[in-house]
Design a protein that fits this description.
This protein is α/β, with parallel strands linked by helices and 570 residues long. It is built from 16 helices and 22 strands. α2 packs across α11 and α3 packs across α4. The longest helix is centred in the last third of the chain and has 31 residues. It is elongated, with a radius of gyration of 26 Å.
Amino acid sequence: MADGADASPSSSSTATKEPVFLHPRREPFEHGLLPIPKLIFTDGTQTLGPIKTKLIERSITSSTNSLRVNSIAIAETLQISTDHARLVLNSLASVLHCDSDPLVLAKPDDIDSVGADVYDLVLFLYIQSYKRLLPRTHKDAAAVADVWPSTSAFDGYLSALSPLQLVRGNSRRAMPSQADEEAHQLSYLQKHMANILSLLAEPAEGEGEESLVLSMERFEHLGFLFQFGEKESEGNQFSQSAPFFANSDPDMPDVPVPAAQVHEWISQNIASTLEHISERSSAKENGPNSVFDQDVAMADACTASSTKASTSARGPCYIEGISKSSFVRQASDVKGSSAKVLNCHDSVIYILAPLRYATIYGCSDATIVLGAVGKAVRVEHCERVHVITAANRICIANCRECVFFLGVNQRPLVVGDNHKLQVAPFNTFYPELEEHMTQVGMEASINRWDEPLALGVVDPHDSLSHPAGVSDVQAESATRLDPDQFTNFLIPKWFGGESLGSTKNNPFPLPDVYMTSQQRNHNNLGEIKQILKEVPLEENRKRELSTALHLCFKDWLYGNIRQLYCLQGE
């Protein structure tokens, strides 16, 4: 078995450094899986091989000598609708490993004409067969059965993931830890690596199909699935981590490497990483639990009020188990490029930072404000949550009675068992918002908040068994929020002094109907205030009116004073 240090590009120069392990890239598995049956191939290369050939035949050679296909070619090859083909392109763009790829750099309206690299697309299609790690069964389902309505034929298996069940559960680690998920992803890649390499490889010159080789350019596509080290190296080519391509002379043509040799090298590195994960997990099992551990189970809600978030060199900033409180994270507090808000309840969460990815999971009765998210947001298994975000794209899965105030460049994706979802235009700002949007490549001139795209109820990537005899149907989509119920959301100013940000208003233009309703409500409020000032009432009636207004204010304060105190405490 290869030692982890052997996997490091710098291991030959020093033996004292920490070993560098091969990790799966989480983004394709967390944000790149689409529940579209025609994208899922469970027979390895038997179907995908001919599909690759058809894609190459329909491709065009770009200025960078890559073979690229647009949505029409994808739709015709995979026999899917053009809407689904565009969704494939957008989804691939959001999880690609190379930020300099033309698909990543393309403006929203140009993505279709730029198209996807055939080999990146083939890898994207291959991992659609991945099934997420099975959650552990809840030990006390009866105790929480009354809090998650059973109105769906699919509740038999989806109700096991109720957000309230996650909090009320009497067993810790009900959901897989991050380490378990990483090991599961590595095991999947290890099992399928021979097929994956055969899709990237080509016959050696003058040899038959049995002698497959990989050029450095083809090998580089494996960076879509893997990364070396605890942090994804920006600008570093994946091939420079491999002994057979490291330090290659850029002016000399690279020598293709036998696919069998690449397979052996990757398998050794995966085995080394799996062994490391196992040893680390064993050490944690024998030691005290820590909620700051990045591998803590998703269901491990924070029980101490002082323990709210954790950040690590690798992986996202976690905000877990916030309950009956308000919590703020600004750009200076978020060290990585992604964030996860897990199992937060009856709270207001602010993450006012530029992010690449964000996940909201298992929350209820909360308001969650995300700053600019340049790649993707996923909201899953939430109940009665208000989400306010400016994001390139958002996926909503298995949520109930939630409202989404969106500034999004792509159509919101709605999948799974959803009920009573509402969407509305973006409704807030903070001083640095436009600067953060520029940093992550978002455009305020495009907002497709009111064009939700609903896919199927059954998620084929979910390892949970589906009820026998139940066929998939289209997911319940989201409806537009009534303009009369639309209000702006004010983000408090926590620190004194002038902010360095230049954003003074909502950067996303409001649709006319919402703007008109907002102006009408504002005018009505002004008229009511004026009437109250001028109404000719006797002194005792004025006192009665004043008392009634104070009672209404107290009623409002009863549900909001805790938030005001928390904000003051920050």
